[in-house]
């Protein structure tokens, strides 16, 4: 296995630590509370690097979830995606999934302190990235760990005359060590449910869903939502532990995922709903401007 340099941030006020791997796509591989691991390890870092099998907290960029075909158009420009090249990967149905930055090696770390990490990626300087997302911009991740809270702030700065679509997201795999999955409780805010077809693509129907709190039990969940209000809170609790995911700003959509083959729950912050890069409905960063999206994971 290739050796990757890791960066571990420490919360000055508690035993909470978070570990990132800049050379493997700025993936978070651990969120540990005094030795109790709160992130699902799935198949591990090597499988993420080799086969893009997600784990920990990966960034899904420039789109989260799936696209309904191998291409999209923005402002009259048509982009064709070729699976297997330029970081494009597909799911079992052959549709592009989770963007192009899985395990991407060339992030530049600009700040590294005890409880703060900043890294950036300049798309304009990387033709291979522009081939699949032809909008020059600077992507910056600011990560802090303070007061038992991991804060992830993403800033997109449009560096030329092109507008930049905001369709990205994150995929935090959360777990409650020592508590049986059947006893996990999940809490979700009021939002709008988007049913999907057999390929996981929204059908266009919508259903309002009220806030809910329920035991996970033996259920499999893979549901997409939009109209997630700023400040919305999702939570996973069980035993004496509670993990909250706060959608502070910029994340107006969410995927709630609890697979049947692994004891993890994901509350995925998304800047736009599934397939938005093809069907529209996303925010654009105007030339010369910046836009920020932020979520926090609070360990109670």
From TrEMBL:
The organism of origin for this protein: Mycolicibacterium vanbaalenii
Uppermost EC category: isomerase
Gene Ontology MF annotations: aldose 1-epimerase activity; carbohydrate binding
Keyword terms, alphabetized: Isomerase
Name of encoding gene: galM
InterPro entries in UniProt: Aldose_1/G6P_1-epimerase, Gal_mutarotase_sf_dom, GH-type_carb-bd
The name this protein goes by in its record: Aldose 1-epimerase
Biological processes annotated in GO: carbohydrate metabolic process
CDD domains from the UniProt entry: Aldose_epim
Entry EC number(s): 5.1.3.3
Upper taxonomic lineage: Bacteria, Bacillati, Actinomycetota, Actinomycetes, Mycobacteriales
């Amino acid at each position: 296995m290739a050796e990757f340099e890791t960066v571990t941030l420490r919360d000055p006020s508690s035993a909470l630590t978070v570990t990132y791997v800049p050379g493997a796509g700025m993936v978070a591989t651990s969120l540990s509370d005094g030795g109790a691991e709160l992130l699902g390890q799935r198949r591990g870092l090597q499988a993420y690097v080799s086969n893009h099998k997600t784990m920990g907290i990966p960034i899904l960029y420039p789109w989260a979830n799936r696209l309904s075909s191998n291409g999209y158009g923005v402002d009259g420009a048509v982009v064709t995606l070729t699976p297997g090249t330029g970081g494009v990967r597909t799911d079992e149905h052959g549709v592009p999934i989770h963007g192009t930055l899985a395990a991407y090696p060339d992030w530049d770390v600009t700040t590294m302190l005890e409880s703060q990490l900043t890294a950036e990626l300049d798309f304009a300087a990387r033709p291979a990235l522009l081939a699949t997302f032809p909008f020059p911009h600077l992507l910056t991740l600011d990560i802090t760990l303070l007061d038992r809270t991991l804060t992830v702030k993403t800033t997109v700065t449009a560096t030329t005359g092109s507008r930049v679509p905001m369709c990205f997201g994150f995929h935090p795999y959360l777990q409650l060590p020592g508590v049986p999955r059947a006893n996990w409780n999940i809490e979700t805010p009021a939002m709008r449910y988007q049913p999907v077809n057999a390929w996981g693509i929204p059908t266009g129907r919508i259903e309002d869903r009220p806030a809910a709190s329920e035991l996970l039990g033996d259920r499999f969940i893979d549901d997409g939502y939009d109209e997630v209000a700023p400040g919305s809170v999702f939570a996973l609790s069980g035993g004496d532990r509670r993990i909250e995911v706060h959608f502070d700003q910029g994340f107006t959509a969410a995927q709630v995922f609890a697979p049947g083959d692994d004891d993890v729950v994901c509350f995925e912050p998304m800047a736009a709903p599934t397939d938005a890069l093809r069907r529209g409905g996303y925010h654009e960063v105007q030339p010369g401007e910046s836009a920020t999206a932020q979520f926090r994971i609070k360990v109670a």
